[in-house]
Specification:
There is one protein chain. By secondary structure, the chain is α+β, with helices and mostly antiparallel strands.
Length: about 150
């Protein structure tokens, strides 16, 4: 009886581990190194595009921690953003922002914000030339063959 239980448990754990691995993020470094400049990463597997709107997760790691609020003890090292981009008009908005206590989206979650995606479209901002947002827009809105590995 115990052997049958352990076989079933092992089988279930195996299936679970395969399904977890199939949803792993595919982070690609777009810019910087996080030591003396911001490290910008994009989850290439999270890119979704419907018509001219693309969505993707982006991580920014700062070289030094940033104070949450003036006078606060809490400082964050990285932020994970869910970006919505208008590929046709070169505009973007952060629909979700999550602040982390450690580099590269690790550690304790210190705060988060989330916009309603229907309303977020009306809060989009123009992307300035030669900016990180422009690089992110390029990869999110480009065919798969031009994406970094």
């Amino acid at each position: 009886m115990k052997k049958l239980y352990f076989k079933k448990l092992t089988c279930l754990l195996g299936i679970f581990s395969v399904s977890v691995n199939s949803y792993a993020a595919d982070w690609a470094i777009l810019d910087g190194n996080g030591k003396n400049s911001n490290l910008i990463e994009m989850d290439m597997s999270s890119i979704q595009q419907v018509a001219s709107i693309a969505k993707s997760w982006v991580k920014v790691t700062y070289p030094k921690p940033i104070e949450m609020l003036q006078g606060s003890k809490d400082k964050y090292y990285s932020v994970m953003y869910r970006m919505m981009m208008d590929c046709k008009n070169g505009r973007y908005v952060f629909s979700t922002s999550i602040l982390y206590s450690q580099p590269r989206g690790r550690g304790e979650v210190l705060g988060s914000t989330k916009l309603n995606e229907r309303e977020a479209v009306y809060q989009m901002k123009d992307i300035a030339p030669d900016t990180v947002a422009g690089v992110i827009l390029h990869y999110a809105c480009s065919p798969a063959s031009t994406k970094p590995s």
